[in-house]
UniProtKB/TrEMBL annotation:
<dbReference type="InterPro" id="IPR036388">
    <property type="entry name" value="WH-like_DNA-bd_sf"/>
</dbReference>
<dbReference type="InterPro" id="IPR036390">
    <property type="entry name" value="WH_DNA-bd_sf"/>
</dbReference>
<dbReference type="InterPro" id="IPR029063">
    <property type="entry name" value="SAM-dependent_MTases_sf"/>
</dbReference>
<protein>
    <submittedName>
        <fullName>ArsR family transcriptional regulator</fullName>
    </submittedName>
</protein>
<dbReference type="GO" id="GO:0008757">
    <property type="term" value="F:S-adenosylmethionine-dependent methyltransferase activity"/>
</dbReference>
<dbReference type="InterPro" id="IPR001845">
    <property type="entry name" value="HTH_ArsR_DNA-bd_dom"/>
</dbReference>
<dbReference type="Pfam" id="PF01022">
    <property type="entry name" value="HTH_5"/>
</dbReference>
<feature type="domain" description="HTH arsR-type">
    <location>
        <begin position="1"/>
        <end position="86"/>
    </location>
</feature>
<dbReference type="Pfam" id="PF08241">
    <property type="entry name" value="Methyltransf_11"/>
</dbReference>
<dbReference type="InterPro" id="IPR013216">
    <property type="entry name" value="Methyltransf_11"/>
</dbReference>
<dbReference type="InterPro" id="IPR011991">
    <property type="entry name" value="ArsR-like_HTH"/>
</dbReference>
<dbReference type="GO" id="GO:0003700">
    <property type="term" value="F:DNA-binding transcription factor activity"/>
</dbReference>
C-alpha cells in the first residue's frame, strides 16, 4: 500500500510512466518534465525508498529504472490501467523522443571519432557478420534468462543477444562508450536493457546471477585477462556458460600503439587452462581465419565457450577444436 501511495502523486506517476520506456538519468527527467533537478531528485528518492525504482551510479551520473519485485508488479498493474493517450503522457513521450535524439547525435559524434581506428582493425579479420553467426551458433536457440555482456562497448553483443534474453545487462568502464551503447540500443527499440559502469576485474554483481556471460573482444585490452575470466565465471549460475570472443595469437605489434592492445591474442590451450582454473568445463574452441589474400598481417578471430562445472554436461575437459 505504501508503494502505491508513493506512486499516486502526479509527477511521480509521470516518472514511472517514463521509466517504463527504459533507463533515464536525472538530467533526462529534468529536461522531459520541465522541473528543477532538486525537485526531480526528491521525487526519485521517494520512489527508490518505496522500492519502485532502482538507482545506480555511473561516475558522477545517476541512472534510474523500474525496480523488480512485488512492489514493481503492483506498479505495473497501475501503469497498464492508465490511459497512455492522456495529453500529459503523450507530451512526455514526445520530449523523451527528443532527449533520445540528442543523446543519439552526441553518441554518433563520439563514435565517428573512433570509427577510423575500428575500421582499420575490422579490415584485418573475418567479417563481423561471420563472427556474429558463429556466436549465435555457439549460444544455440534456447532462450536466455539472464544475460551479461562484460565490456559491452557500443552494445553490439547486446543488440545481437538481448532479444533472446529475459534480462540483459551490459557493463563497461567507459561512460562515453555506455552513452554510445544507450543510443544504439534505443535505435533498436531495446529500451529495457540495463547498462552499468564498472571494472571487469571486480564486476558489481552478486555471484551466481547469470546463465550466460559474454566477453567479446575485451581480453586483449586487459592487464590481467586470467583474472577477468575468473571473475566472469563467478557470476554464472550452476551450469551457466561463459562465451569469450577474441583473437588468436598474432604478431601485429602496431596494435599496441594504434589500438591500445595489451595482449596479442590468446592460444587455445591458454584459454582452456584459464577456463579450468575458473571452474569451467570447456565445450567449444573455434577459430575463424581471415579471408584468403590481403597480406600476412591478418587476424584470426577465436571463440571459446565454457560451462560452469557445478552442472556441466561435458564429455571431457578438452576443447572441441574447430576451424571455420
Amino acid at each position: 500500500m505504501s508503494a502505491l501511495r508513493a506512486a499516486a502523486e502526479e509527477t511521480r506517476l509521470r516518472v514511472l510512466v517514463l521509466l517504463a520506456e527504459g533507463e533515464l538519468s536525472v538530467s533526462d527527467l529534468t529536461d522531459i518534465l520541465g522541473q528543477s533537478q532538486p525537485r526531480i531528485s526528491r521525487h526519485l528518492k521517494v520512489l527508490v525508498e518505496a522500492g519502485l525504482v532502482a538507482r545506480h551510479r555511473e561516475g558522477a551520473w545517476a541512472f534510474f529504472r523500474l525496480a523488480e519485485g512485488a512492489a514493481s508488479e503492483s506498479v505495473q498493474t497501475l501503469l497498464d490501467a492508465l490511459d497512455r493517450a492522456d495529453p500529459r503522457f503523450a507530451e512526455d513521450r514526445d520530449r523523451l523522443a527528443a532527449v533520445r535524439g540528442r543523446r543519439s547525435e552526441a553518441a554518433q559524434a563520439f563514435f565517428a571519432r573512433l570509427a577510423p581506428r575500428w575500421d582499420e582493425l575490422r579490415s584485418l579479420h573475418v567479417s563481423e557478420d561471420d563472427v556474429e553467426a558463429a556466436i549465435l551458433a555457439a549460444v544455440g536457440p534456447a532462450p536466455i534468462r539472464n544475460l551479461l555482456d562484460l565490456g559491452t562497448g557500443t552494445g553490439r553483443m547486446l543488440r545481437l543477444l538481448a532479444p533472446k534474453a529475459e534480462r540483459a545487462v551490459g557493463l563497461d568502464a567507459s561512460h562515453d562508450m555506455l552513452a554510445v551503447a544507450r543510443a544504439s540500443l534505443a535505435r533498436e527499440g531495446l529500451h529495457r536493457v540495463e547498462l552499468r559502469q564498472g571494472d571487469l576485474h571486480a564486476p558489481p554483481f552478486p555471484r551466481g546471477g547469470f546463465d550466460l556471460v559474454v566477453m567479446h573482444q575485451v581480453l586483449h585490452y586487459l592487464d590481467d585477462p586470467a583474472r577477468a575470466v575468473e571473475q566472469a565465471a563467478r557470476l554464472l549460475v550452476p551450469g551457466g556458460r561463459l562465451l569469450v570472443v577474441d583473437f588468436a595469437p598474432h604478431g601485429i605489434e602496431q596494435l599496441r600503439e594504434t589500438q591500445a592492445h595489451r595482449r596479442l591474442g590468446f592460444a587455445q590451450d591458454q584459454m582452456a587452462a584459464w577456463f579450468d582454473e575458473a571452474g569451467l568445463a570447456p565445450e567449444i574452441g573455434r577459430d575463424l581465419p581471415p579471408p584468403a589474400g590481403g597480406g600476412a598481417d591478418r587476424l584470426t578471430v577465436s571463440l571459446w565457450l565454457g560451462r560452469d562445472r557445478r552442472a556441466a554436461h561435458s564429455t571431457g575437459t578438452a576443447l572441441r577444436r574447430e576451424v571455420a
